[in-house]
Structure formats: C-alpha cells, structure tokens
Sequence to fold (296 residues):
Amino acid sequence: MFGDIIAYNSIGKRYNLKRNNGNAIMEKLSVFITTFNNQDTLPTCIESVKWADEIVVLDSFSNDKTLEIALANGCVVSQHKFMGYGPQKQMALEATTYNWVLLMDADEELSGPLQKSIQDLMKTGFDADGYEIPRQEQLFWKMCSTKVRLNYYLRLFNKNKGFVSTMPVHAAPKVKGEIKKLKHVFYHYGERSIHIKVEKINSYSTGLVEDKVRKKKNPWPWVKLVLYPPFAFIRSYIFKRNFLNGWAGFITSVTMAFYAFLKYAKLYEYQQIEKYGARQLPPGAPEHQDKSAKCD
Fold:
C-alpha cells in the first residue's frame, strides 16, 4: 500500500516521501526532448541525463543521425511533423510515464553539480511543484561568464501541475503551484557560431509574427524600430553584464538588438502587405514570400 511520509531534511525543510510497506521510494523522473537534425549535440545531452528513469524523444523527421543516436541510447522515440515549439513539446510531455519531468533541448547539457542536485531531490522528495534552473550560454567561441545575469528557466516540474505554453517560439512550461530556484547551471550549446545565431533570430522573428498579429500588437515604427533596438543592446550589454564576456558579449548584445529590430520590422512588413498587397509594385512583380525554417 502506498502512502506519504512527511519528513524533514538536515536543515529542517519539509518534504514528502512515498512508501511501500514502510520502505521509502525514490521519485522517478522522465526527461523529454524534441529534436530535428541534432546529431552534433544530442549525444552530450543524453549522456548528462542517462541516469533518469526514462528519456522520451519526439523527433520531427530528422534526416541526419539524430534518430539513430536516440535509439542507440535507449530513448523512447517517436516522430511527428513539426507543429510549432509549444505543441511539439507538449506532445513530448504527454508521452512521458512519470509525474516528475525534466524538459531538455537537444543542444543542452546538465552540469555535474546540477545532476547531483536533481538526484538528491529525487531521493529526499521534491519540496515544490516546479524548479527554475540557471542556464549558462555558449557565446560562439567561449562559455559566458558565470558573473553575468544568467536567465532562469522552468524545466523540472510535476506534470500534474503544469503544461507547455502554446507560444510558436520560446515555448516554456507553466506550473500552477510553488516554484523554487536551483543553484547549479545547465549548459546551452545552441549558438556555436555567429552564423547559427543569426539563422536562429531570423527564424524566431518570423515565427513570432503570427503570434503578434493574433495579439493585435502594433509595431509603432519610431518606438519599436528606432528606440527599442538600442535599448535591447543596453539591456543585454550593461544590465545583463555581457560586457564581462569581452567581444563575444558585445557581438551577442548587437545580435540581440538586431533580433529586437527584426521582430517588429517583420510585423510592420506584414501589416504593409496586408494593407497594400502588391499595389506598390510593378504589374507582374513576383508574389511576396516569407519563408521560415525551424531550428531547435
């Protein structure tokens, strides 16, 4: 018969332990990952969570060795056409077996200390409904300084209390309940070159247009196209302390300003096309096209 034991750890923090005939049971954990052509980073990602009870991989029909790598590492693998970041991650979440889940991107890795922190929580019992974790970014040729203001991401949570948002880009879990922060970092290898960074912000900014149109956002050209990008640079370079990352931090802050510009420039472009169509072009001019690529 299963029940809950109310217990306290060495510093007096309350937590719950499940029991089976009086014996404490360690919590089980499912990791879920969405993939598309991630053969370069997926092995490192999986290696950092191989101790988990289950690794679920939902693939968007990769044409490299991603699927082979996942299967060789004992992952529970399925494939589905890419539906957008939110719906894709939610589908992967729904394929997990256990209540406690960890969302990973295929270009991320848990640090050793973070692995131990999560394993300790599995042993002693989780004392919140979700946990935000700081992420240390790769900035092209180096890792960012730990002295910058790292962003925290909600990744570890009880799926009975949470779900993944429907945002077309930057989809993230939402949890109803208590959320705490973990101390140790996980690594993100998503921006291994300036070329990859620019490709990503081009794709992401296109993907956000539909969401901004749905929310009836206005680009306000003088504000969003002229004033907002410099503010985005200052926020990244000064307030988030990217100046501590040398020239890599400067380049990152410039690309963040460009991203801020592109998000509203493309929204403005959309509105102009909706308003004028092809009337401002010569007769017979090619039809306007906006092609976006998915990237994980």
